[in-house]
Putative pyruvate, phosphate dikinase regulatory protein
Amino acid sequence: MFNDTQTPQLTLFVVSDSIGETAQRMIHATLTQFPEVSQIEIKKFPFIKSESELINVLKRAKERGAVVVTTLVNPEFNIVGQKYAQNEQIPYVDYMSDLIGIIQQLTNCSPILESGALRKLDENYFKRIEAMEYSVKYDDGKHFTDIGEADALIVGVSRTSKTPLSMYLANKGYKVANIPLVPEVDIPDEVFKYKKLKVFGLTASPNYILNIRNERVKVLGLHGPTNYNSIERIRQELVYAEEIFEKLNATVINTEYKSIEESAFYIEKFL
């Protein structure tokens, strides 16, 4: 964007009491409207912590003929900065104050005036993405290698809402693994090694599970009774599930006629 050997067409000073990423995004969005302005110098002044620091930056902006763009959440800094810039005829753009004031007036809510709030929001976003990637990887007993990293392990027989519940919790930032319980398939020994792992066992009545499985069979285009939707088979699976719940010291949740939100709310109490 700018070569040191050339004179810039435009110099911008980005001033913030955090890292200044909000102002940078706004600047880049604005500059896309001026494709002919190619020689642009952008200097960043993050983590402004005092009025004297701010004034020093404004003095440099005056010397360089720079436009000052700020995202200062401290209202006192903004008052000082705007007053100095006005007196010294420095172009000064404050991206925060006016909108904060309007929102405060319309909602009667007070702003937290916390610098770096966007970065924290981004951190929460990436935490959720990481949790969802983990939960997809550890869905339906596909992997066990790093299962100890899970915030929660959900176990249960087929059609007790393991996967929907796992994904719902993952979207809230929790790493969740889930394992289907089938009498013929043993749970790997490594699962039992993690004594601090919070385990939740999902269950429901045989008839409730049977009704859901019958619908599932129809969706799959199958006809007639199968082992999957046999009431006797379901009872066997539930007996086996109870044994596993006990071995894993699981907190048991009956998901019958419960929404995903209800079950998740209960699990979150333990996380």
